[in-house]
């Protein structure tokens, strides 16, 4: 039984955010998402929205609400699961791999998870394959302003967490140019926590509209496309070797197509 009243509130808001993001992306791309539902092996399920469009070469907006029992191995990793292995989780995940190398790959997710404890998590980051200094500075400045409205410690803390998390250890290089990453967010003011989570979603929706519109018609070369495929190869390496969401989904019996939605359509290695 779900005891935290914020769970259903978060679930409903994630569903609304999902609808807004799908609408934004469809308006930009002028192509519709393919939508399918899936059932979790224990309880619950999700909605998978995939697009192979005119601008987005491959993208997905996935939402799920599931519950079950953590494996013995997962019980050691998740706060509160050592006392009770039952869990409930609701969240949304977005990955966009654009056709144009001038547009970065873009990732966002946010979630609410309950065991004996409950908390929010999430974040966003961008992975350009070409020089992106001006846009990097603008992205981080705007992200800092959004975070500062809630807590001036959030941006430096969550940016550092993002930089450390999205680091490809065996390559000794970052996956992209960062963003923010947060987990186990539960202060004494859960309403403020939730407002912060909502603002990350609103920020992301505005950002993808802005950045894709700005670069969608910019010309590219075959060499830039080759560089994009190499960078995507690094993206694949990170997600399969290190990404928590990928591991969590697989270990809890999630939908494989939804879990691997983050994989780019084409990648290359030297």
Description of the molecule:
This protein has helices at 6-29, 72-75, 133-148, 154-165, 190-215, 222-241, 244-251, 256-259; strands at residues 34-39, 43-51, 56-69, 86-98, 105-114, 118-127, 167-168, 173-174, 179-185. It has 270 residues and is of the alpha+beta class. The protein has one domain: Coproporphyrinogen III oxidase, aerobic (oxygen-dependent coproporphyrinogen oxidase), CATH 3.40.1500. Strand 5 and strand 6 form a beta hairpin. It is globular and about 55 Å long.
CATH domain class: Alpha Beta
Proportion of beta-strand residues: 25-35%
Computed structural class: alpha+beta
CATH architecture: 3-Layer(aba) Sandwich
Number of domains: 1
Q: Low-confidence parts, pLDDT < 50 over ≥5 residues?
A: none
Q: Can you tell me the CATH topology?
A: oxygen-dependent coproporphyrinogen oxidase
- Cα separation of the termini: 51 Å
CATH level-4 homologous superfamily: Coproporphyrinogen III oxidase, aerobic
Which sequence of strands runs across the widest sheet? 1-2-3-4-5-6-9
Overall average residue pLDDT: 92
- Total beta-strand segments: 9
Largest sheet composition: 7 strands, antiparallel
């Amino acid at each position: 039984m779900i005891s935290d009243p914020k769970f259903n509130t978060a679930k409903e808001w994630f569903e609304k955010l999902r609808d807004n993001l799908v609408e934004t992306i469809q308006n930009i791309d002028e192509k519709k998402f393919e939508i399918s539902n899936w059932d979790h092996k224990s309880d619950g399920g999700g909605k998978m929205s995939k697009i192979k469009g005119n601008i987005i070469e491959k993208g997905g907006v996935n939402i799920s609400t599931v519950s079950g029992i953590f494996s013995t191995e997962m019980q050691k990793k998740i706060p509160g699961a050592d006392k009770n292995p039952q869990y409930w989780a609701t969240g949304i995940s977005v990955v966009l791999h654009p056709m144009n190398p001038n547009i970065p790959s873009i990732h966002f997710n946010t979630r609410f998870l309950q065991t004996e404890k409950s908390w929010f998590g999430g974040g966003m980051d961008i992975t350009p394959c070409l020089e992106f200094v001006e846009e990097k500075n603008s992205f981080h400045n705007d992200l800092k302003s959004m975070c500062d409205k809630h807590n001036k410690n959030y941006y430096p803390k969550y940016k550092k967490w993002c930089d450390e998390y999205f680091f490809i250890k065996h390559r000794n290089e970052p996956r992209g140019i960062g963003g923010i990453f947060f987990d186990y967010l539960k202060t004494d003011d859960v309403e403020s926590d939730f407002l912060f989570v909502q603002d990350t979603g609103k920020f992301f929706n505005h950002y993808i509209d802005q950045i894709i519109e700005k670069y969608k018609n910019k010309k590219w070369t075959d060499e830039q496309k080759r560089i994009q495929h190499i960078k995507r190869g690094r993206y694949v390496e990170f997600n399969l070797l290190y990404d928590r969401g990928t591991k969590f989904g697989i270990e809890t019996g999630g939908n494989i197509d939804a879990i691997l939605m983050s994989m780019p359509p084409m990648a290359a290695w030297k």
